[in-house]
Amino acid sequence: MTMALIGTAVLAGLIVLTAELLGAYYDPAARIPAYAGGAAGLAAAGLGLMFALKLARLDLSKDSDGAFWKWWGGGMLARFFLIGVLGLVLNLIFRKQAAAALLTMMAVYLAGLFAETAWLAQIFFNAGKKNSGT
Asked: What is the pLDDT of residue 14?
């Protein structure tokens, strides 16, 4: 959980850095859309984290393939739905700076997704080593 808090703080810092650089070097009006997109990306990554926490608690010693794929697929569908809705809302609100909002949202979401994937892989690989006796 500590790593999740550190990761969230790093992502928040990157959002601020991105928004301020966009505002300083590109267009001052792009700051607020970049902040909004970053917040939307954090929301999508946070939704994914809830599903990842459920996946991490699955008992891998039992036949849990069906449960794994159910929770993984449900998590992906929920994230894609949320990203679609947030993308439409951001596009409607920030028509002139939609690219700043949408690209920031996706960058933050993907960073969260990659961190979540690495965390789950570490858990599952360690569980596999314990179960195989190596």
From this structure: 83
